[in-house]
Amino acid sequence: MMQRDVHLTAQGLLDSLQFKPGDFGDVALVSGQPQRAAACLNFLENPVKNFTFFGYSFWTGTYKGKKVTVGNGGYYAPDTAFVTELLCEGGIKTLIRLGSCGALREDIGIGDLIIADASLRGDGVTSYYVDDSFLGEADSVLTQELMDLSSAQVKTHRGPIWTTDALFKETKEVINPFIEKGAIAVDMVTNPFFTIANIKNVEVGAILSVSDNIITGELGFSNINFFDSQKKMIEIVFGLVDKVSV
């Protein structure tokens, strides 16, 4: 039988990756897709790779004199949880997610942007961290800054995101109760991202590009509007980094 309290901690893993305090910036821009993280990396001056682990890589450089960390931080809920823990343990003060999602309202189009202000649990990993009543929340000031910058350039919506583990089980029986709770979109990441940041007392926000619409059935994964909005999303987030003291 296991006698130790825990097999592995975030700090223990960082130590094994030869990570040192101060290697990260105060703010981290976190994407699921590696190509989105690579696009963010192009904005940094003199980036240095912090680590690569299980295919997740992070770099830290400067943007207009501010130290910023970028990387790919999880496709799904479980990997998002452990990567987010690593970032929090590594000293990040502000986490911003650049993601994608499916719309849960008919009026939300492919390529629109969504600013998540809360998250609803449909994933399994966060049950190991918090009880069922816990609501993941974005920082209100950061969320408003994102909303102001985004809505000035792109059709933008604000509201809660439902996170699921089961892509092919997005049935009306499962989805409609979350819509009734206020969810305007669904993804596979935001709830663990918000939850871990909340319990670690790290400022957190998320901006997501709409790739499909669950209500209308429209699929836009190869739609030019989806690709264009991802580029715009990155520009918006770096505009936020430039504007605020992070």
Q: How would you portray this structure in words?
A:
With about 250 residues, the chain is α/β, with parallel strands linked by helices. It has one domain (about 10-245): Nucleoside phosphorylase domain (Rossmann fold, 3-Layer(aba) Sandwich), CATH 3.40.50.1580. The chain contains seven helices and ten strands. The chain has a five-stranded mixed β-barrel with strand order 5-9-8-6-10. A hairpin with a 2-residue loop joins strand 3 and strand 4 (about 65-70). The model has no long low-confidence stretch (mean pLDDT about 95).
Features:
single chain; 246 residues; alpha/beta; Rossmann fold; 5-stranded mixed β-barrel; 7 helices; 32% helix
Q: Report the span from N to C terminus.
A: 46 Å
CATH class identity = Alpha Beta
- Average pLDDT score: 95
Spatial order of strands in the largest sheet: 5-9-8-6-10
CATH architecture: 3-Layer(aba) Sandwich
In terms of structural class, how would the helical and strand content be classed? alpha/beta
Describe the secondary structure blueprint for this structure.
Layout: H1 10-16, E1 27-31, H2 34-41, E2 45-53, E3 56-63, E4 66-72, H3 77-89, E5 94-103, E6 113-122, E7 136-137, H4 140-151, E8 156-164, H5 172-180, E9 185-187, H6 190-199, E10 203-213, H7 224-243
Parallel strand pairs: 1-4, 1-5, 5-10, 6-8, 8-9
Antiparallel strand pairs: 2-3, 3-4, 5-9, 6-7, 6-10
Short description:
The protein is an alpha/beta fold and 246 residues long. Strands 5-9-8-6-10 form a five-stranded mixed barrel. It has helices at 10-16, 34-41, 77-89, 140-151, 172-180, 190-199, 224-243; strands spanning 27-31, 45-53, 56-63, 66-72, 94-103, 113-122, 136-137, 156-164, 185-187, 203-213.
